[in-house]
Amino acid sequence: MSSAQERAKALAQEMKRAIMEAKTAEARAKRLGDEVLLALAEAKKEAETVSTIVEYPIGRYECKQCGVGSIFSQTYRELPACDNCGSREYVGAEPTITKITPPPPKKYSSGMYECTGCRTRIVLAEDTDELSPCDVCGAYKLRAV
Length: 145
Ligand SMILES: [Zn+2]
Ligand SMILES: [Zn+2]
What we know:
By secondary structure, the chain is of the alpha+beta class. It is 32% helix and 21% strand.
């Protein structure tokens, strides 16, 4: 076999390997894409549910069931059970309720975007008013997919 033939053979092998690697990377990117979408959906749900915070202040509480007094030296989202009878109802327990007003919606919501220039997919992890340029070609032409 001539040296040129040898070289062609080696290059062919290398090309085959590169293609295999690209396929593996593509499958991995796809899987990561699916996972990131799930995580984003979860984050959105969380942001919607945490809209009020209930907090019981530090102070003296009296058990509604058995009348035993307890002093809570820390604030609670949910009052602990009475040491004496296990009840969770107290007299004089007035929680402070803080309502969290969600921030105004941003122009672009988190999710999967595609560059209309080079078709690269980009994940926007957070809502934003301004899109970044494409990682690959630098174009400011992302659209939601
Ligand atoms: Zn009690
Ligand atoms: Zn691009």
